[in-house]
Amino acid sequence: HRASTRASVLPKAETVPRNEEVHSIFILAQMEMFEMSLNSAKDDMPLFSLTMCDSKVNHHSVEGDDENSEMIFVLGDFRLETPNCGKTMRSYQTLLGLAPSVSTSLLTFKYCKGSQSVQSCNVGGANKSNCEACAEVLLSPMRFVHIHSQV
Predict the structure, then answer these.
(1) Are residues 140 and 104 in contact, defined by beta-carbon separation less than 8 angstroms?
(2) Rounded distance, CA 53 to CA 76, Å?
């Protein structure tokens, strides 16, 4: 699927003179994990931990062709959890993140600009011939836990 997506951005053969080279510009970035601990100002004990993992950015365009480009952003997982040292039940420690049965990414965002690039978008059968840009947003099932306590 990725090969066909990248090929869709390249100009048609008849638009490129035979003696001229076409250079593609790729930006591929990946972050395995980013973790942040949010501690109490009173006793410096951990309150929450924030984890973002398996995130990717993929941008593809052709040099000299500002009209056609494609960008894909993937957020693998974004978790907000309470520490293991508290009294919270294990099943409630993850307050925000992917649903337990889901192994895909939390969010995938694809943006295509230009008539050639737009053809790779899946817009449910809509006519793409007059589109200048297209965006696909895929959200996976998410887990959200609200804990209410009275003191």
Answers:
(1) yes
(2) 6
Instruction: Retrieve residue 141's tokens.
Output: 């099932």
The Cα-based distances of 112 to 89, 103, 106, 149 in angstroms read: 44, 26, 20, 46
Please report, as a single letter, which amino acid is at residue 6. R
Pick from 106, 103, 83: nearest CA to 95 = 83
pLDDT at 86: 66
Higher pLDDT, 115 or 149: 115
- 80 φ/ψ angles, rounded to the nearest 5 degrees: -120, 120
pLDDT tens digits, residue range 88-139? 777 778 888 888 777 778 899 999 888 878 887 877 777 777 788 888 898 8
Looking at residue 41, its amino acid is A
User: Do residues 110 and 118 make contact, with C-beta atoms less than 8 angstroms apart?
Assistant: no
Contact 111, 74 (CB under 8 A): no
8 pLDDT higher than 60? no
Give the Cα separation of 91 and 25 in Å (integer). Answer: 45
